[in-house]
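A sample copied in:

***
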Amino acid sequence: MLPEDGVPQGIRPVGAAGAEDVRSQDTTADTDAAAPAEAADPAATGPGPAEGDPGSGPDPGSPNSAAPAGTSGSASQNRWWIYRGSGQPLYDTTLRELLPEPPPWRRFTGGPVVPPPPADDDEVARRLGSPSGRSPASEQLRREADMVNAALLLRRPLLVTGRPGTGKSSLAYRISRELRLGRVLRWHITSRTTLRSGLYEYDAIGRVQDSAALRALRTAEDSPVAPRTADGATAADEQLPGIGDYVQLGPLGTALLPYESPRVLLIDELDKSDQDLANDLLSVFEEGQFPVSELLRARRRHPRVTVLTDDPEGAAEITGGVVRCRAFPIVVITSNGEREFPPAFLRRCLRLHMPDPDRTQLVDMVTAHLAEGAATRGGDGGDLIERFLRRSRERGGLAIDQLLNSVYLTTSGRLPADAGALDELVDALWHRLDGAGAESRPG
């Protein structure tokens, strides 16, 4: 089964925030909300696995899974699987409480602390469907959760590779939903993308135009026909907006703001970028900060400036012209494997390969987006997912959204009952991703 916390839903996990919170090893449940670290650990009193039985070891998601066999005490309460990949949001706790201190070389102390990000439940639901428990875990799901948790603890970016359409980008939204981290910041990469565009943009032209317009108004302010307010003021009496109104942080820049809990940043299709972008990211990932040149030059007159962020109607204060992070963001970088990255870049990332999803995972995805049992109503009494998997092997790999499109149409009740016409339509939807069309249908 998927790793669990070892405690019922709604109960705060044991020893979540580190060794300093392990104040008691009493296995009796404590309902006092002021002492969450003393919550019960039902798994701790259960019978241990048979010695030498590889299939009966502790569940990696339970509090005991982090400790070697035969150990007890606070070591057994150190929680390894913070992110479990279950699809269910954290209950009665937060990532800030669960996450231990970072390694000394990955500590950042930026400030002042900015408010938490807005939620974006509609976008998460659009990409993932409704939250529901995932089916018994495959080895791939366990490896996925292992790598996500390693990236969490080490404060390192996660480089996710795999064929197009295997759900690489969805991982960022699953992490955000389960750990309740708010809106995902998405930076879509093209061949023209630069590091600067991900950090911030400065609208110099807009500032010049506003300044020129204001000067023109002031030139005409003595005109007797100039419109005035009740107190005699004219439009020319308005001041030019501050420099912060012309600076907007990009997705990467917003992720590096000093939040108390990490933001989730999706850097999508990095292999589409110019060769230099991966190298340009190195210093940002290492230092956890970057200067805003325009604010740096004005820092003596304007030591604190409020700028726009990548969030809708978002704003944040920057001190001294430098953005410094506090909690290093959870960075998910996707790549379709179209080119290799420099060794120095790979050394600073954790790597996860996303294989094609199996039948169980596809059933979970279809159920989350549509309805229970929708995946097995494939027309002509067949199993649509089995047909999809077979056709995917024949055509060199298909994308998950191609399956969702076909399931939606075949279960809509609006298609003709003719099985041949249905097969023709489904086959057209399952076209090859390498440019070949539906005419390649075998047989």
